Amino acid sequence: MQVHDPQVTEFIPFYRPTGNECALFETAYREGLPLLIKGPTGCGKTRFVTHMAARLGRPLHTVSCHDDLTAADLTGRYLLQGGETKWVDGPLTRAVREGGICYLDEVVEARKDVTVVLHPLTDDRRMLPLERTGELLKASHQFMLVVSYNPGYQNILKSLKPSTRQRFVSISFDFPPPAIEAQIIAAESGLPESQCITLATLAQRLRALKDIDLEEVVSTRLLIYCATLMKNGYEPYQAAEAALVEPLCDDPEVKQGLLELISATFGQP
Fold it and tell me: How, if at all, do strands 76-81 and 84-89 pair?
C-alpha cells in the first residue's frame, strides 16, 4: 500500500491523454462520483490516476488488491503499540478522513467482503461505517474512490457484480495509437522518438498476432523498458528479447514466433 502526497511536491507524473479522460476524472472528483477504470495490464491506468491525484493536489492511497486482501486491510484494525491496543486507520479510512483519493488497483482480485465495504461510499450517502470503533464517517467532499481492473481476466469467479459496477462512472482504457504511444515511450525512456515509433509499430504487430497463445499482450510499460535498454546501448533485437519476449512467455515455440517478428523489424543481432 502506497501513499503519495502531492501537496509536498510540485512534481506531476507524465501522462499523455488519448481522449477526454482527464476532464471526466476532474468532473467525477468535483461531483463526488466514484470512478471505475477498465483496461489491459500495462496500458497506463495507474499512471493516469497518479497523474490526476498530483494534478488535483490530493493525497493518493494506492492499494494493490489480491486474494488475501480483507475489508480490515482497507478500513483499519486494533494493533498493539507501546503496550497499548490502539486503532490504526487503513488506507481507505485515511482517505475518507483527510479528503484523499483511494485507488484500488485490480479490485476484482480482492475478497468479496471488500466490495461490500465500498457500497456506502459509492452512493449519495458517501459514508464509511467502522463497526469496530462504532464510528460512521462522512466522507470529505475532497474524497474520491477509484477502482480498476483488467476485463481480459474476467470470469465467473472474478468479476464485479452488476450491482457494484452500476455504482461507478466508468472509463475504458486501451493501448494508445502508435504515434501517441511513441511519444509516451520517448518521454518515459529518453530514447529519441524516431526510434520509439518503430517500437510502437512493432507493438501493434505483436498485439495483432492471432496464432500465438499469450496470456498478455505487449504493454506500453514493457515498451518503455525496451526503449530504456536501447538508450543504454543494447541492440534493438537484444533489448526486445529481454523486455518484450522473455517477460511474456516461456514456451519455446511461442518465443520463436515473437522473435521472428522482432527480427523482421530490427534485423538479427
Answer: antiparallel
Q: Which neighbouring-strand residues pair with 59?
A: none
Element (H or E) spanning 197, and its range?
helix 193-207
φ and ψ at residue 233, rounded to 5 degrees? 100, 0
Distance from C-alpha of 193 to C-alpha of 227, rounded to nearest angstrom: 10
Average confidence score pLDDT of the chain? 90
Of 110-119, 133-142, 203-212, 227-236, the range with the lowest mean pLDDT is: 203-212
**258 in Cβ contact with 245 (< 8 Å):** yes
Phi-psi region of 206 (alpha: psi -120 to 50; beta: other; left: phi over 0): alpha
Q: List % helix, strand, coil for the chain (3-state, nearest 5).
A: 45, 15, 35
pTM of model > 0.85: yes
Mean pLDDT of the 55-80 span: 94
Helix (H, G, I), strand (E, B) or coil at 198: helix
What are the start-end ranges of the H helices in 57-192? 71-75, 91-98, 112-118, 162-165, 178-189
**Rounded Cα–Cα distance for residues 238 and 124 (Å):** 54
pLDDT tens digit sequence for 5-18: 444 345 899 999 99
